[in-house]
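Continuing the batch. This is chain 6 of the set; chains 1 through 5 are on the previous pages. Same settings as before, nothing changed between runs. Recording input and output for traceability.
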Amino acid sequence: LVTKAGIIAASKAGEMRFTDTRQDEQERCITIKSTGISLYYEMSDEDYEFVTQEKDKDSRAFLINLIDSPGHVDFSSEVTAALRCTDGGLVVVDCVSGVCVQTETVLRQAIAERVRPILFMNKMDLALLTLHIDQEDLYQRFVKTVENVNVIIATYGSDDGPMGDIMVDPSKGTVGFGSGLHSWAFS
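Output for chain 6:
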């Protein structure tokens, strides 16, 4: 997203820790303090045709305010503060490691703040290159990750609650797959 908005060069995408602005964040390769950036993006006509929700026929422009918040449990107050000023939450899960303890904490916080979660399974390239398992096993691993996220959502959310059904499902466009390092993704 940061590359598409023209903020960093494509050659630095996946390597540069743009939102980790503090020295200790750069050294430890983790986010400690939430950082916000605004991204202006214009969709091509052919991509815009795939947008299914209500849309403005005259504008292809989007302003995305991105808040990178910490993933570590020690910094959960930063996540809560970020959730209180957002319209949606992108929960990034390493598809090799799967759902971790902090994933549950972040999802619980998002549901409590009435933020609809979207799941993004990152490091697909790593899964394809390092796991050395056949395609069916890899597919089942991805299905299990989606199921694990939905178990957490079912635990803390409710279909008849104010947000309605918030389960993630690739067929509903609420699950994305990709590689931040290699700048590709699909849903």
